[in-house]
Amino acid sequence: MKRSLPDTDTVKTVIDTVLAEAAAHGRRPTVTAIERHLDIPHATFHRHYANLIDAYFRPRIPNPALLTPTREPSGSEARARANLSRLRKENADLRRTLALYEEAIRQLALENDALRGGGAVVALPHRPAAGPPTSA
């Protein structure tokens, strides 16, 4: 049994509704939202209403730069942003620490190879701790 499809005017009305809802929430309107409103599968919608998508829907999609949320971020969004910022900082710190450990392991591997190969490890002179220069 085939289900009857909505007429063009009904689809245009739903497209206008989806565009208005997206603008109200500061989001980009999608064809998927239209399909959900109409309860039509994507393939069926595209097969029967492709001309409306190209001629009626896409020209009315606002520029993404003009989409701005009309509401203030909630407490959970603010916490999520703060958490994301903290995680990014921790990630950068861990990458720096990892780079230091990689260099230390590389130097130890070179020293180990030199010792096992019978080469001599040259001890570098010990530098005094940094401080004010002493006059002799």
Question: Would you write up a description of this structure?
Answer:
With 136 residues, this protein is mostly helical. Helices cover 62% and strands 0% of the residues. It has four helices and no strands.
Offer a few descriptive terms.
single chain, mainly alpha, 136 residues, 0% strand
Summarize this entry quickly.
This protein has 136 residues and is mainly alpha-helical. The chain has helices at residues 8-25, 31-38, 42-57, 75-116. 62% of the residues lie in helices and 0% in strands.
Stretches with pLDDT under 50, minimum 5 residues: none
Number of helices: 4
Query: What would you call the structural class?
Result: mainly alpha
Strand content: under 5%
Q: What is the CA-atom radius of gyration, in angstroms?
A: 32 Å
Backbone shape? elongated
Sketch the major β-sheet: none
Mean pLDDT level:
83
- What gap, in angstroms, lies between the N and C termini? 103 Å
Fraction of residues in helix: 55-70%
Helix-strand pattern, N to C?
Answer: HHHH
Total count of strands: 0
